[in-house]
Amino acid sequence: MENHHNHDGGVDHAGHQAPRPVPGQATAVASPPVDHAGHVHEQHGAADDHAVHSHGQHAGHSTAMFKNRFWLTLVLSVPVVYFSPMVGHLLGYEPLKFPGSTWTPAVLGTVIFLYGGQPFLKGGVQELKNRQPGMMLLIAMAITVAFAASWVTSLGIGGFDLDFWWELALLVAIMLLGHWLEMRALGSAQGALDALAALLPDEADRITSAGTETIPVSELREGDIVLVRSGARMPADGTVVDGQAEFDESMITGESKTVPRAPGDKVVAGTVATDNTVRVRVTAVGENTALAGIQRLVAEAQASSSRAQALADRAAAFLFYFAAGAGIITFIVWTLLGSVPEAVTRTVTVLVIACPHALGLAIPLVIAISTEQAARAGVLIKNRMALERMRTIDVVLFDKTGTLTTGEPDLKDIAAVAGGDTDRLLAMAAAVESDSEHPVARAIVRAARQRNLTIPDATGFSSLTGRGVRATVDGRTVHVGGPALLRELGAVEPEPLARSTRAWMDRGAAVLHVIDGNSVLGAVSLEDAVRPESRQAVAALQNRGIKVAMITGDARRVALAVAEELHIDEVFAEVLPPDKDKKVAELQGRGLKVAMVGDGVNDSPALARAEVGIAIGTDVAMESAGVVLAGNDPRAVLSMVDLSRASYRKMWQNLIWATGYNVLSVPLAAGVLAFAGVVLSPAAGAVLMSVSTIVVALNAQLLRRVKLNPAQVR
After folding, report:
1. What is the CA radius of gyration of the chain?
2. DSSP annotation string for 50-87
3. Which of 10-24, 109-123, 169-183, 331-345 has the lowest mean pLDDT?
4. Is residue 667 classed as helix, strand or coil in its secondary structure?
5. Residue 569 to residue 585: CA distance in whole angstroms
6. pTM value?
7. Which one is predicted more confidently, 34 or 197?
8. Does the active-site annotation cover 399?
9. Residue 420 DSSP class
């Protein structure tokens, strides 16, 4: 490549290349044979059904196991509840009677205890061995006590009325549901990506010097040119080299609206060309594609810890000690009062209702719904702690190029010498640039086409290293380039034009002159275009009390121009890539909690240092990011803030409700107010426990009301 368009006040652009190479002559970069993104994770199968977690209370348990046990337990629970004398008495109906009907709850309840309760019994034993009591031990204790007490009652031993078969059945069913929901939430994104991967084409049309050949996608190599027809999916990541098409990227970004892709634009494996045929140069295959990178991120998210889940585990540990202690004290006190049967009844009631139905659903439901909502908004959570921390952020530090801006030049101004036609000037510049694939050239040609200008034919294109380009248009030799080209040709800007170009340079724009022979016809300015969404994102963050800062390696005047346009609070300009993390540390030194948003590998140290690292775009190989915004819309940061705050509120509300219920109900069940005639019966305790569960479930569902679509965020 040669360099040109070197000019004052602008970025040094890589030079133009000669007319586009013949697709078949592309130089392939050797890479080891690997399966394409659609098949590298085949071994996982349907992740939703078979994801095995190796951490915490789910060790060795698959999503499918919890799901299957839940559905069978639920089916068996219906007759158990119906034939329960306690439920019949509470609801005022008489269950059907047939030979052996009275044993229905005991028989089916035993199946539920042994089959549905097995994961909790095993988990409880493991927690005992580890001396780390938690949710599993609490559940195991409750269902074991309910099972033993119910059999004692069914067999008529001791005259106890402790029929907890229906409570045992519902408790096991609800706990299985909670664990299934949590594991499904952790594996849902992976399952969706695996489903997408299964849709990727098995074959690709590769263009060679001899024509088009159909090959397995696994044989594609970086540098190959592939033909992607209308309605077909991209077999690998690449760059469009010929043609224009609207691409459906919803499976990657969550955005339903198609996006235009033209020569020079990146396209991603799995996306669909909806209306036209394009030629694409492959830039990544197999494990190196964006989709494969997303799959790796999801796998890491599945193994990540959550402060909220840890809080629920600590609450369960507290309740275990609380229930066990209350049970022992209850038995001793009532025995000393001379009522052993009452002591047994009160103790069993305490131990059974101490098991937190609601607590078992409090966190899993919130995680499940928030994960689903995030995925719909195109937010990929690599580490759940990042989402939880987002609510505490004081300042969001955006990398400028490619994040707040498009990262590509865009035509901003046109000025012709006195009496000149700006449309004619732009058409002539586009003609000279039409054979180049340089971003500057594409911007000029794109602007001419957007204005529906007729672009003349140009011949004899050549690139002038570090200065500009030249071509023959309508029999005249026309140059397009910066100040260095002016000096070489001895051309002089008329003063009115010079005043305009100086103003453009002062705000950091790149300036190119259009020269006929040695006469300057006019000039154009190009700037890194600000994303329209950036204005809304900055304003919305500030409305939420969050400062917005920007960091860039560009000249200060360039940075200040963007900052002024977006009303950004603080600017760090002329920062070298290795020093970006120092600016994050500087903000943290002021006592601020920082979320860093970047789109390049150079941002990795800063992403790692920030409290929350957010990578934007489909280049998701950034291991330092805790969150990836699969689209390129900076407003998705707002979605994270809103979701983090909303899910945190719901988690705490559910935890307080679930734990508070137990703290209040256990003493009543123990009989601390028996002297005043207030005693919580086993039946009343069970009913209140079910009500508590319903409240928690409905409260978690309110998360669905949070608007996370970036276009709807205000």
Report:
1. 33
2. H-B--SGGGTT-BHHHHHHHHHHHHHHHHHHHHT-HHH
3. 10-24
4. helix
5. 17
6. 0.58
7. 197
8. yes
9. -
